[in-house]
Amino acid sequence: MLTKRIIPCLDIKEGRTVKGVNFVELRDAGDPVELGKVYADEGADELVFLDITATVEKRKTLVELVTKVAKTVNIPFTVGGGISTVEDIKALLNAGADKISINSAAVKNPGIVDEMAREFGSQCIVVAIDTKNMDGVDFVHTHGGRRPTLLQTQKWAKEVTERGAGEILLTSMDHDGVKNGFANEITSEISALLGIPVIASGGAGKMHHFKDVFTSGKADAALAASIFHFKEIPIPELKKYLQAEGISIRL
Prior knowledge:
The protein is an alpha/beta fold. It has one domain: TIM Barrel. Helices cover about 35% and strands about 30% of the residues. The chain contains ten helices and twelve strands. It has an eight-stranded parallel beta barrel, surrounded by six helices. The chain is globular, with a radius of gyration of 16 Å.
């Protein structure tokens, strides 16, 4: 059995960590470099840094911030936000990122996934999918969740996998920040559909939500933000709970 991963997510805006509900009403959650180090020390398996307004503001991810983070953490970390070219990825990997996450750029130009996977290997390429259920159908959203598309989430996940994505970061906009549990149904659907790892995001509020997404949701990793940022669930306690519940986890 593959070990499940716990991944804190740091949404970055103007150099600070922020967190909201359903992608809006953002509030400050601290310095991302300091938080990243704390999570690494507490036993997080990986980190994700998302520059959430980079695409909307038509600018690139903060390479300087990535460099600072890389110097303070000793676990893999993924960076996303405003990435649209091979040159963007080179700059971030050179700054110390282990993987990159793309969303809007892939929707705009699906061929970029093929190009990036060829250039850097699938293990470096995470495709983030922000999904929202509209009248019973799951649709992909871009630009930090601001723009709905006509792409159905399941079909898009399959397409980017076939194009060379090494991992899917699936965020349910309906569940984001609400803390009522992950979107286990669609996570399970997509996990069953694909042959690559799926990271579930959006909805963590209690420890049992993580157990549920690993069992019912079939997720390979679970990502959360506010419950870690605001000390509602300490990572070491969460991992001990999951191990006691029979989930294979790295302590």
